[in-house]
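[Automated response] Your request has been received and processed.

Submitted sequence:
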Amino acid sequence: MQRLLATLLAATTVGSLAACSLDSNTPSANTIDVVIGYQSKTINTVTAGTLLKAKGFLEKRLDDVGRSTGKKYDVTWQDYDTGAPITAQMVAEKIDIGSMGDYPLLINGSKTQANPRAKTELVSITGYSPTGALNMVVVPPASTASSIVDLKNQKVSASVGSAGHGTLVRALANAHIDPATGVEVLNQQPQVGASALESGQAQALSQFVAWPGLLVFQHKGKLLYDGAEGNYPTFHGVVARRDYASQHPEVLDAFLQAQLDATDFLNAHPLEAARIVADASGLPQEVVYLYNGPGGTSFDTTLKPSLVTALKGDVPYLKSIGDFADLDVDGFVSDVALRTAFTTRHQDYDTALASTTNPSLLKGQDSVCNVPVGDPKLAGELWLDGQTTTQPAANPGCLLRAIRDANAKGQKIRAAYVPDAELGTRWFADKSAWVRSGSDYLPFDTIAGAQRYAGAHPGATVVDYQQALAGAA
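Generated structure:
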């Protein structure tokens, strides 16, 4: 009996020790997992993704929260090429907060709503364009196509369900081409589509930023269609799982505070932000700065009524690509947490909400024309190799003169940016089509835009970049 009791006591002791050992290796109830889905190469989500991650803003905010809650927050970043896999992971309850474009956001809201634990809400905007200039269609450099109409019966690469695909559908519809039958859409990831364009498998590629700018910068494509031609707002935003946010409201607040930190940093230091994003994403800094620089994407977190209205107008797109559940957009959008984040920072949300001005605009003195830089519809920018700042230009003529002067001095030009004279889209000066109108030279990001202007203005002539450089007075 004594031996039996001793054996039972020993077993109980070992079991207790084993239990203690097991508990020490089990994640503590005080550790909260935070899983973020982002797209490192989707430039208009960097304030909720690449830049946010690189600067460590979220981790810093959560560390501050942890000091008051006594909890540890373990952040995991998951990088994807498009919004679709982020949505799939949110449906599976494996991603808590994600960022993506407007059309993918619609799909996200539709697919997650059936499961209360997966159901998401749109909580903030990352970047937007009031005209839709964020997404574009490019063709091979030697293509004879000059407008979206020329794509009829051609093969076009696009990621179905993406913001780039949504832009293609809207552009075709505006050109009175049936998106379902007028072109053959090759459903491909952006990098696969880029290869298809280069190999001739596809006659065009419709994608979100930064793919169009990247291909044009690399001399692998030329711009055929600027989404701004449709004059319809496009944007990227942040979605959070409601169930997760209700359990951990401090995490969502920390994320939005961190996003505001990243947004402020980008708007205050656009060139430095572009370098950080380029280093983290592998994209050329010149391409990142095309979109993240002054006058490019509007990085503004507020859920503007115009963007919500545009999202409602995009709902028919869901029906055009598959059997998706109806989505109540008003119920999907919630600015409650973002308003709280603004209040914490002693900032007026409604004032920011009402503003339609791009927070990042070119300023300074034009050193060539010796005038202040003011009108954002005219202001350009020259970036010389070896310089840590850029040189502002008051208008296209002044920019051309600055480029010509730099060439004469043997200075290497990294990039020159100029707004399209018709649409206002920031674009590469050397990749633009130019029009001579009297003594002025006007830039257009597509040949179609230049031809529209020349056709409407007697005496105006389409010229190439070198002619514009030589003629600028």
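Summary generated for your ticket: The chain has three domains: 31-127+234-354, 135-230, 365-471. Residues 1-27 have pLDDT under 50 and may be disordered.
If you did not submit this request, please reply to this message.
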